[in-house]
Specification:
Elements: H1 2-13, E1 18-23, H2 32-43, E2 46-51, H3 59-75, E3 82-84, E4 86-90, H4 96-106, E5 113-117, H5 121-131, H6 135-141, E6 150-153, H7 159-167, E7 171-174, H8 176-182, H9 189-195, E8 200-201, H10 210-225, H11 233-248, E9 267-270, H12 283-290, E10 296-301, E11 304-308, E12 311-312, H13 317-334
Parallel strand pairs: 1-2, 2-3, 4-5, 5-6, 6-7, 7-8
Antiparallel strand pairs: 9-10, 10-11, 11-12
Helix pairs in contact: 1-2, 1-13, 3-4, 6-7, 10-11, 11-12
């Protein structure tokens, strides 16, 4: 619960109004998603939450994780603030039997899966040893891919796998800072864009700062390809604003992330006074080179002011952080 509160506060402070939460707590599965929901509602951040099913803690916990997803998704049908999707850890910790059980459980729920996909090269080796096929191919065979499924990372995917992702309209989410931290490689996002895939931008929990994630994306692929012409600022903002929004809208009945009549009133106000003229054409470069999360002043979610002039209005930050420190200290002492 407190991890959820702290995460939600950090999200709001960095100008994030929506989170896709891929949660895991193998020794406290049942009801864990509802605890996160409680925290997110209290702070005031919109979210889609999933529990990552895995065989790594035994079959009983895998089945418990499946049920946690099913219960949460069913409970939140029609909810326009908190929604659910079906979480899977990664193919390397999921047997054929568990994958089949997940697909069967998700049947009829109008949901997609949220899964780490070919994040590290070991995921590829494991898939080849299990099935003789690469990660995306194995997931495709089991019916995991599709328009509402999120394939996070996709670092180690080849041309055929990228074409499968495009054909199935599976949502690829690029997490550059997380990939750098884990030293797993750089996703072939430049090639994905050339193929017409629409990769979105995420963090995999490494940070709540999407401004920073965008800047890292802007420079990383230039370095990786040794080509300063790739990944222009307009491409990064397309990933951040357009592609992210398109994923979220698959779980909500009204538009998200844009200023149009009938859209959810989720807004961020930043204190940015440019030193040079700013217009629609050069805005992406102002965003990359001039704006950052420290300039976020006010955040509105679902028409409610959650933060005003850097002050959260929904919860007492000091009390929450004090309690979180106590709980963290107690946990470390038990380990």
């Amino acid at each position: 619960y407190y991890s959820g509160l702290v995460t939600a506060i950090e999200a709001i402070r960095h100008g994030t109004t929506f989170m896709m939460d891929h949660h895991a707590s193998p020794y406290s599965i049942k009801g864990s998603l509802e605890m996160l929901e409680k925290a997110y509602r209290e702070v005031g951040v919109r979210a889609n939450i999933a529990y990552e099913v895995s065989d790594r803690d035994g079959l009983d916990k895998a089945r418990e994780g499946i049920q946690e997803n099913v219960d949460f998704i069913k409970k939140h049908e029609g909810d326009e603030f908190i929604t659910g999707s079906f979480g899977l850890h990664a193919q390397l910790t999921l047997s054929d039997e568990t994958l089949e059980a997940c697909v069967e459980a998700a049947n009829g729920l109008d949901t997609g899966f949220h899964i780490h996909t070919a994040e590290g090269i070991e995921d590829v080796f494991d898939s080849l040893s299990k099935s003789g096929k690469r990660v995306v191919e194995r997931l495709w065979d089991h019916g995991i891919l599709g328009p509402k499924t999120i394939a996070a990372h996709c670092v180690h995917v080849n041309e055929r796998e990228m074409r499968i992702l495009k054909e199935t309209k599976t949502n690829v989410v690029h997490n550059p800072e997380s990939n750098m931290n884990n030293a797993v490689g750089v996703a072939p996002v430049v090639r994905m864009l050339e193929l017409g895939i629409k990769p979105a931008l995420g963090t995999d929990g490494f940070t709540m700062d999407m401004f920073r994630e965008a800047k890292v994306t802007f420079v990383l692929h230039k370095l990786h390809t040794s080509d300063p012409r790739v990944m222009g600022a307009e491409k990064v903002l397309e990933m951040l604003f357009n592609n992210n929004r398109e994923i979220l809208e698959k779980y909500y009945p009204k538009p998200l992330g844009k200023l149009v009549k009938g859209a959810y009133a989720d807004l961020v106000v930043i204190d940015y006074v440019p030193y040079t003229p700013m217009d629609e054409g050069n805005f992406p470069w102002h965003f990359i080179f001039g704006m950052d999360s420290s300039q976020v002043r006010t955040v509105i979610v679902d028409g409610k002011v959650v933060m005003k002039d850097r002050h959260l209005l929904t919860v007492n930050e000091d009390e929450i952080f004090e309690k979180a420190r106590e709980l963290a200290k107690a946990l470390w002492e038990r380990l």
